[in-house]
Amino acid sequence: MLDLLRAAAALSLFSTTMALAQEPATLDQMAAEYRLQTIADDPIVTYFSGLPPSHNDRFADRRAAALNASDAWKGVMLRKLETIEADALTDQQRALRAVLLEQISSDLRLRVCRGELWNVNHFTGWQALLVPVAEGQPVATTKDRTEALARWSSLPAFVAVEIANLDRGLAEHYAAPKSVVRRVIAQLDSLLPANGAAPPLLSPATRSEDPEFKRRFAGVVDEDVVPALRQYRNYLETVYLPRARDGVAVTELPDGRACYQAMLRANTTLDRTPEQVYALGERAVEENLSAIRAIGERRFGTTNVLEIVDRLKADPANHFESAQDLLSFSRAIVAKAKIRTATIISALPRQDVVVEPNRSGDEAAGVSSHYDINGDATAPATYRLQMGPWKTQTKGEATIVAVHEAWPGHHLQIAYAREQQPSRLLGDLVMNSAYVEGWARYAEGLAEDIGLYEGDDARVFRRIWPARGMVVDPGLHALGWSRQRAIAYLVSTGRFDDARADEMVDRIAVLPGQLTSYDSGALEILSLRREAEAALGPVFDLKGFNAAILAPGVVPLAELRRHVGTWIASRQGHRKD
Description:
Blueprint: H1 4-14, H2 27-41, H3 46-49, H4 64-82, H5 91-109, H6 126-136, H7 142-153, H8 155-171, H9 178-191, H10 203-207, H11 211-240, H12 256-268, H13 274-300, H14 305-314, H15 323-341, E1 353-357, H16 360-365, E2 370-372, E3 381-385, H17 395-405, H18 410-420, H19 433-449, H20 456-464, H21 469-477, H22 483-492, H23 498-510, H24 514-536, H25 542-550, H26 557-572
Parallel strand pairs: 1-3
Antiparallel strand pairs: 2-3
Helix pairs in contact: 2-5, 4-5, 5-12, 7-11, 8-11, 9-11, 12-24, 13-20, 13-21, 15-17, 17-19, 17-20, 19-24, 21-24, 22-23, 24-26
C-alpha cells in the first residue's frame, strides 16, 4: 500500500483551508491555486507527496469554520471548472481538467462522511503520521528551527480540537470501531517515552547541531507533546472506547450509505454501486480460481483450491526461518525485480528504492507493508516491510508484496511520473487509488510475464487474493456482512491467518472503499491491454503500452481510457496485416 494514501485519505476527509485569495482564470492557475490551498490546509501533506515542506510552523486547523471555508472555495473552483469545455483543450490540459474535476468533486462528496467527527484510525489518523513528520521537519536554518518549535508546541491546541470534534461526534452518533480505537491506543503507547528511552518524536533535536535548539525542542517535547499525547490516549481509553462502536461498517453511521458511495467514487473514480462492485469482484475471483485449479491439477492432481493452498503452505521450503530472513529475501527480490523490469519499460527512473522494516508504531498497530515516497530524487524511496507475519508468510507472498510496492509496482510508477513530468503543477497531491493501486496490481501480473515468480507458490498466491477486496469491502460496509464472516472469508483465501485477517478487517473499517480500488484499476488496465492487443495485432508493443499507461500520470480511469484509446489509434497506422 502506498504510504501517500494514508496522508491523502486523511486530507480528503479532514482537510481545511483559507478562502480563495482570487479567482483563477486558467487551468494552470486553478491547479496552482489548488496546490497552494491544499498545502495551506494541511502542511504535513508535503511530507508524503514529495513536495518541499512548507508552512512548517503548524498543524492543520480542523475547526468547523475552517471546514466550511474549505467547502466554499472548492465549490467556487468546481463551478469554474465545469464551464470549461474539454473538447477545446489540448491533451495535457484535458487531463489536468479531468484530474481537478474528479479531485474537487470527490472532496465535496466526502463531506457527507463528517470524517472529522470520528477521526480515530491507525492508518490516516494524525498520530500515525507524527513520526515521519518529525523525521522530515526542517531544522537547517534559524527560521526552520523557529517554525519547528512553533509547530510542536501547538500540539496541545491541536489535540484539544480533535477531542472536541470526537465529543461532538459521539453526541451526533458518530464513533469509530472499538477494535480500531484499541489499535490507536497501541500506536500512542509507542510514541510515549518508556523505560527511560527517548521519545521517537525528538528527531528534530537529534538532527540539529544548535545546542540551544536541542534544549528548547526537548523541552517542548517534555512539556507540550508528551502531555498532549497522554491526554489524548487517556481520553480514548477512559471516555471514547466505552462509547465506540462494536461494529465496523461505515453504514452504521448517519448517512453511512451515502458516505460509502462517496468513498467508492473517491477510491475508484467510477460510478458503481456497492452491489455492482461486489458482483464484478465475484466474477473476477472465479476467473482467478479457475487458473489456480489448473495449476493444482498439474502440480498435485487436485482442483480443490483449499487443498492446493494448504499443500503449498505446508512445504517448509516456502517459508522463512526468521524475520531477518524475510527482510533479506525481500531485498534480494527487489534487486532482481529492478533488473527484470528494464525489459518491459522503455527507461527505468533513476531513483532507487530500499527495503526497511516497518516503523515500530506501525508494526505495533498492525499496519501492513507499504511504500514511502522520498521527495529527494537523489536519495532512495523506501519499501516499509511488515515483519510480524514472517512465520506464516510464504516466499511467494513476500515476492508479490515486494513487486507491488517496489519494482515494477508503486516505486516504478511514482518515480517514473516524477521524472517524466517534473513540472507537474499538482505534484503528488492529487491521486486516486484506482490508478495508483491499479497499476501496482497490474504490476503483479507483469512480474509473471518477466519470470519473477519461480514457483507455483507465487503463481497461486498472485491469483488467490486479487478482486477479493471488491467482495469483502462492500460486503462488510454495505451488504450486511459481520466481522466474523469477513474474517472467515479472508482466512478461506489461504493468504491470511486469523490475526492478519483481523488486522485487514480493521484496515477496511478505517479506509472504506479503498480495498476495491486495486482491482477496479487493474481490471481496467487489463481491459485496455486486451483491446490494444486485439486492435494492433503483431505491432502491439508491451513497452509502448506500459508507457501509454504511465504517461498521463495519476488520472481518473475514464481519462486513462481516453488517453490509451488515442495511443491505440496512433499505432494502428503501423499495422500491415
